[in-house]
């Protein structure tokens, strides 16, 4: 499967020689092929060697884009290009997908009439027209750059990530399992604001999931298979067989509901209903789903789940929801991250399943089996948080990057020490902005992708922490 399906507009102005167009088009298609990007573009026999210049070319290009379910558009200028033709093609397509504007550099030894490009200048004109038409667009790191240049390849990869986030957010289907725990006002959110941004939320009462789980027999074939899957996923030596079976039943019923509703992720009630009424922690089941790229968030934190899913779309890797939990001694740029134990296994050094001691202070600890216990693996991470601001009717977010260190941390659950340059400034922004105590993390470096997608294309008010 291709990494993306991108529309390609080759710009042209007819005072420039045709060989620049045919060569530029071929160069860009070769880069697409190398990155496994499926191109959608008018044929070489259409327009001027497959380029868009006139209104007729723009109409044909727009028709093709509308029929092709494209994720984004790359505009390439092998020469100055015709800014109106490009803007018309995008306006007529009316797809509202991300747009990347690229322009070729000139060769100082080839500024004669047969070889000069003037794309340096033409790019400014194209961007001016897109701005006038209220069409948001992305830019390459260098103003002009050859498609084969490694900086452009990196730009194109990043742009594909932006396209994934934008498309995924606008069509996300998320599940809320159970009621928000009464003590967690912090995770309240506006379902209507999410819906207005394309993110739909399906709900199910926790009692329905537990009733379905209780109806499954211990010797049911699916239950036995799920038990085996859990035991293969993490060490269960400290967990009674009965608790593993209950985890399996819970996972089966939840999985069936997810499949029936075609959900991209879930936010699950815990604290303390599932412990009191079913005798397990759902952490291991949630970890297994997140590892399979079906992110699962604690405490019905739906907007925390939005951030998890956005990170997953940007990086293609699992994400986790964590607490901004403790200071790390006197280190101002370090803090500890924690949750009872539901992080995806790829975050963890050595996952074993046990109990949740904090929950065990308010319920029988034997009824909290299912929490994973491990220190996180060190490495670079991106963090993100999304929230709905009902007072202003907007969605807000913050993103940034840091690293999980190999510092010792003598405690339990899923845990990590994270270093973020300028952490104190970031935490002030979190507190002053009324953000939740949860933050999503990914073992990646995709803050730039999220910032671009959230701010430019989704219209979310976003703070990017630079440190």
Outline the structure in words.
There is one protein chain. Strand 3, helix 3 and strand 4 form a beta-alpha-beta unit. The longest helix is centred in the middle third of the chain and has 21 residues. The chain is elongated. The two termini are 37 Å apart. The chain folds into 2 domains: 167 residues, 3-Layer(aba) Sandwich (Rossmann fold), CATH 3.40.50.10940; 292 residues, L-fucose Isomerase, Chain A, domain 2 (3-Layer(aba) Sandwich), CATH 3.40.275. Helix 5 crosses helix 14 and helix 7 packs across helix 9. It is α/β, with parallel strands linked by helices and 467 residues long. It has 14 helices and 18 strands. A 6-stranded antiparallel barrel has the order 10-11-16-15-14-17, surrounded by 4 helices. A 5-stranded parallel sheet has the order 2-1-3-4-5, sandwiched between helices. It has a 4-stranded parallel sheet with strand order 7-6-8-9.
Shape: elongated
Q: In what order do the strands lie side by side in the largest sheet?
A: 10-11-16-15-14-17
Biggest β-sheet: count, sense, barrel?
Answer: 6 strands, antiparallel, barrel
- How many helical stretches? 14
Helix percentage: 25-40%
- What's the CATH architecture of the largest domain? 3-Layer(aba) Sandwich
What percent strand? 15-25%
